[in-house]
Design brief:
alpha+beta, about 20% helix, elongated
Length: about 180
């Protein structure tokens, strides 16, 4: 167990807050810890059909680069992550899903953040808007499912939630854990 001694500084933004604390380790030694309080988030592996998924190209400021990812975003205050997943899919791709199933939940930065991302798979997609979030998304891409693992292994896809979502969906499919009517 670590005991907080004092807070050295805080930062409050629209969707998260961060603080730098001095803590006492169980050995008695003092050190610093940063903690980011972050809302839950949802991500979606959206299947157009059994052979193709939708992905988004998005500029990531911290990397200074555009990435290829599955649609995702932060849950609004009090919003259920399944509702968030539906909303983000529409906002980022213009598609609505008839079916949404949970795949996995994880903490992407367990050493300094309490954020949890809940990953879903979606099917029964229907185009409901020609618009997408132009502030965030530069392009919506259809990607062949059989090529997605290769894009990961070649380093073209490096986003953690995308790698986890795609890999675990594939594993769950191989194990027969995806409902038989998922693609209908």
């Amino acid at each position: 167990m670590e005991e907080k001694i004092k807070t050295l500084g805080t930062l409050h933004a629209n969707h998260f807050s961060a603080r730098l604390d001095v803590v006492r380790l169980r050995t008695g030694r003092l050190t610093e810890r940063i903690k980011i309080d972050h809302p839950e988030a949802a991500a979606v592996v959206p299947f157009i059909d059994e052979k193709r998924i939708l992905m988004v190209r998005q500029w990531r400021y911290a990397l200074g680069a555009e990435t290829l990812e599955i649609p995702a975003g932060k849950a609004d205050d009090g919003e259920d992550t399944q509702v968030c997943a539906h909303r983000e899919l529409i906002e980022e791709t213009g598609y609505e899903a008839a079916r949404l199933i949970p795949i996995f939940s994880y903490y992407p930065a367990i050493g300094y953040s309490n954020e949890i991302i809940r990953i879903y798979a979606a099917s029964g997609l229907k185009r409901v808007s020609e618009e997408n979030d132009e502030d965030e998304i530069s392009h919506v891409a259809e990607v062949e499912w059989k090529h997605v693992q290769d894009l990961i292994l070649r380093g073209i896809i490096q986003d953690g939630k995308t790698v986890i979502g795609i890999s675990l969906f594939g594993t769950r499919m191989e194990r027969g854990e995806i409902p038989k009517d998922f693609f209908k």
